[in-house]
From TrEMBL:
<dbReference type="InterPro" id="IPR015422">
    <property type="entry name" value="PyrdxlP-dep_Trfase_small"/>
</dbReference>
<comment type="similarity">
    <text>Belongs to the class-II pyridoxal-phosphate-dependent aminotransferase family. Histidinol-phosphate aminotransferase subfamily.</text>
</comment>
<comment type="pathway">
    <text>Amino-acid biosynthesis; L-histidine biosynthesis; L-histidine from 5-phospho-alpha-D-ribose 1-diphosphate: step 7/9.</text>
</comment>
<keyword id="KW-0368">Histidine biosynthesis</keyword>
<keyword id="KW-0808">Transferase</keyword>
<feature type="modified residue" description="N6-(pyridoxal phosphate)lysine">
    <location>
        <position position="209"/>
    </location>
</feature>
<keyword id="KW-0663">Pyridoxal phosphate</keyword>
<feature type="domain" description="Aminotransferase class I/classII large">
    <location>
        <begin position="45"/>
        <end position="344"/>
    </location>
</feature>
<dbReference type="GO" id="GO:0000105">
    <property type="term" value="P:L-histidine biosynthetic process"/>
</dbReference>
<dbReference type="GO" id="GO:0030170">
    <property type="term" value="F:pyridoxal phosphate binding"/>
</dbReference>
<comment type="subunit">
    <text>Homodimer.</text>
</comment>
<dbReference type="InterPro" id="IPR004839">
    <property type="entry name" value="Aminotransferase_I/II_large"/>
</dbReference>
<comment type="pathway">
    <text>Lipid metabolism.</text>
</comment>
<dbReference type="InterPro" id="IPR015421">
    <property type="entry name" value="PyrdxlP-dep_Trfase_major"/>
</dbReference>
<keyword id="KW-0032">Aminotransferase</keyword>
<dbReference type="GO" id="GO:0004400">
    <property type="term" value="F:histidinol-phosphate transaminase activity"/>
</dbReference>
<dbReference type="InterPro" id="IPR005861">
    <property type="entry name" value="HisP_aminotrans"/>
</dbReference>
């Protein structure tokens, strides 16, 4: 049976979070002399002399309307990377606890574990890039606090079998983190709908991919109110700046534009796959539920260098376990995709 108190670090249980000026006063006022801000303004057209809302209420309220989740179940971070780091710092004791990763997967889980001095148990995906449930079960011990699952997975592009994830959620007494950075491009439904069923579920999403806001650095975590409260307690007081909050609010009112881009991305993804299949040095193109494709080739290094020399940058994943000989290629605009195909055609 999952119990948050059993896996929460003792120092976090007893932590008194920093109380900012904006935490201590909430309401309407005309004179703010509490936070040692510059009262005269900013040397900019837009005024940023006041500290931002530490809990980003207006952004969460808008996300709540879009996602169908109460604001109290939403955490906003400086990218999903901040949410990942906070989960380590909240639930994993350095030098004692461990987490399970299922490579090939998003590399930041390993980096964050290393930074926080948390041991990693790697249980590689199967040959068809699905979970090895038996291997995961064998790897779990009393000090296993987190399991990270990226779905759709980066760099393979496929979605992880839903029933396998549910099996982990139902049987693991720690937290299962489902990273859905690419969910907007997927045929699979989000795990956000399962939050009321599983107290140990954390779902990560981002505004960096389909929403086109990578430069604003806004990641989202959806979880139980208990887990969100802990994450808010551990985070820096003003982790999302005012400019990012205001621009995110503007963007979140343009859902039709984003949906149009998603549809076009999927069309271009199919065209890119068909184009790449024409080349005899392309061995395989794996099915994708994301805005990128993983392409197995006979000479990944050679093709990568050829593209770089022409000013075209893709991701060489050939040294990643189970991705030998592979390039990860993001779906671009029709013009960018055509340039890519024309350039590859000249590779010898």
């Amino acid at each position: 049976m999952f119990s948050i108190n059993k896996i929460l670090r003792e120092n976090i249980k007893n932590l008194t979070p920093y109380s900012s000026a904006r935490d201590e006063y909430q309401g309407e006022a005309s004179v703010f002399l509490d936070a040692n801000e510059n009262a005269f303004g900013s040397p900019l057209e837009q005024q940023y002399n006041r500290y931002p809302d530490p809990l980003q209420y207006h952004v969460k309220k808008r996300l709540s309307e879009i996602k169908g989740v109460p604001p109290r179940n939403i955490f906003l971070g400086n990218g999903s990377d901040e949410a990942i780091d906070i989960l380590f710092r909240s639930f994993c004791n350095p030098g004692v606890d461990n987490v399970i990763l299922v490579p090939p997967t998003y590399g930041m889980y390993q980096v964050s574990a290393n930074i926080n001095d948390i041991a990693v148990k790697n249980v590689p995906l199967t040959e068809d890039f699905q979970l090895n449930l038996e291997g995961i079960a064998e790897a779990i011990d009393d000090n296993t606090k987190l399991i990270f699952i990226c779905s759709p997975n980066n760099p393979t592009g496929n979605s992880i079998d839903r029933t396998d994830v549910e099996t982990l959620l139902a049987n693991f007494n720690g937290i299962v983190v489902v990273d859905e950075a690419y969910i907007n491009f997927s045929r699979q439904k989000t795990f956000i709908q399962e939050l009321t069923e599983y107290a140990n579920l954390v779902v990560l999403q981002t505004l960096s991919k389909a929403w086109g806001l990578a430069g604003l650095r806004i990641g989202m975590a959806f979880a139980s109110e208990e887990i969100i409260e802990i994450m808010n307690k551990v985070k820096p007081p003003y982790n999302i700046n005012e400019a990012s909050q205001q621009l995110a609010l503007q963007a979140l009112n343009n859902i039709e534009q984003v949906n149009s881009w998603i549809k076009e991305t999927l069309i271009q993804r199919d065209k890119l796959v068909l184009g790449l299949k024409e080349f005899d040095f392309v061995v395989d193109i794996y099915p994708s539920d994301a805005n990128f494709i993983l392409v197995k080739t006979t000479d990944a290094n050679g093709i990568y260098d050829h593209l770089v020399n022409q000013g075209i940058i893709v991701r060489n994943r050939s040294k990643v376990e189970l991705c030998e000989g592979c390039l990860r290629i993001t779906v671009g605009t029709p013009k960018e995709n055509n340039i890519l195909l024309q350039t590859i055609q000249n590779f010898k």
